[in-house]
């Protein structure tokens, strides 16, 4: 499996508090069958200088984490990215592409909570014409997901849903409704720690194999692989 939304880097945001927690999160993910994790710390930059600051902080954290890994076989591969908070002028930042998933032009975007779907669509369009491919983080968290997806239907947009949504009947019902509105999704953990916001990719995949069998492999592996390899994203068949 590929987990392309995590807050596993230490000392960067509201995710891992130290290297020890990062290692525990990664080891748990590996035990569940995750072979690659994207470290995607929050980026709420208000200008390009703030992007540079986040990139430096991210790199320093990554180096601390990598230096603490003694046996690579116990942990997933780690690539870098960022969960970028969408704002009006972000498409004008000259260094925006540095926040994409490593060696790709896919960029993970967290939507603002107080703007209309039409404003969101305009800002995402401005990003896409820069040659970047938007990925909307945890679309399942937005009450107006249907309006957002409708506004974005004419754009080349990918959607990420959180693995925890597979764990309860009510949330699975929500996913079924979300999946009817689009055909390009992948699942990630959005893990932040080892207690309350954990990696549950393994259990989610087990449930998806039964309840979403036609889509499960694409949701947990094929979609993520396409992003990491910077290929066109596969659609549900």
Summarize this structure as a short list of keywords or feature phrases:
single chain; 237 residues; alpha/beta; TIM Barrel; 3-stranded parallel sheet
What does the model show?
With 237 residues, this protein is α/β, with parallel strands linked by helices. It has one domain (2-228): Metal-dependent hydrolases (TIM Barrel). It contains 7 helices and 9 strands, in the order E-H-E-E-H-E-E-E-H-E-H-E-H-E-H-H. It has helices at 19-31, 48-68, 117-128, 145-151, 169-179, 201-211, 216-228; strands at 2-6, 36-39, 42-43, 77-80, 83-85, 106-110, 133-136, 158-162, 185-188. The strands form 2 sheets. The chain has a 6-stranded parallel beta sheet. Helix 3 packs across helix 4. The longest helix is centred in the N-terminal third of the chain and has 21 residues, at 48-68. The mean pLDDT is 96.
Q: Uncertain runs with pLDDT below 50, 5 residues or more?
A: none
Helix content: 25-40%
CATH top level label: Alpha Beta
Whole-angstrom Rg: 17 Å
End-to-end CA span: 20 Å
Largest sheet: 6 strands, parallel
Q: Would you tell me which CATH topology applies?
A: TIM Barrel
Overall morphology: globular
């Amino acid at each position: 499996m590929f987990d392309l939304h995590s807050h596993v880097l230490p000392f960067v945001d509201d995710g891992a508090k130290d290297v020890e927690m990062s290692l525990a999160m990664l080891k748990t993910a590996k035990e569940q069958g995750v072979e690659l994790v994207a470290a995607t710390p929050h980026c709420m930059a208000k200008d390009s200088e703030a992007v540079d600051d986040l990139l430096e902080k991210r790199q320093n954290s990554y180096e601390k984490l990598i230096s603490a890994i003694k046996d690579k076989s116990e942990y997933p591969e780690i690539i870098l990215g960022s969960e970028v908070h969408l704002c009006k002028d972000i498409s004008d930042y000259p260094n925006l592409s540095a926040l994409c998933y490593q060696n790709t032009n896919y960029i993970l975007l967290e939507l603002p909570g107080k703007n209309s779907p039409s404003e969101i669509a305009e800002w995402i369009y401005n990003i896409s014409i820069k040659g970047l491919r938007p990925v909307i983080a945890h679309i399942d968290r937005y009450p107006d997901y249907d309006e957002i997806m409708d506004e974005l239907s004419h754009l080349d947009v990918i959607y990420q849903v959180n693995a925890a949504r597979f764990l309860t009947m009510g949330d699975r019902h929500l996913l079924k409704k979300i999946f009817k509105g689009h055909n390009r999704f992948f699942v990630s953990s959005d893990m932040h720690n080892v207690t309350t916001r954990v990696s549950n990719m393994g259990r989610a995949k087990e449930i998806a194999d039964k309840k979403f069998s036609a889509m499960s492999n694409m949701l947990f592996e094929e979609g993520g692989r396409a992003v990491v390899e910077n290929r066109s994203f596969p659609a549900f068949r």
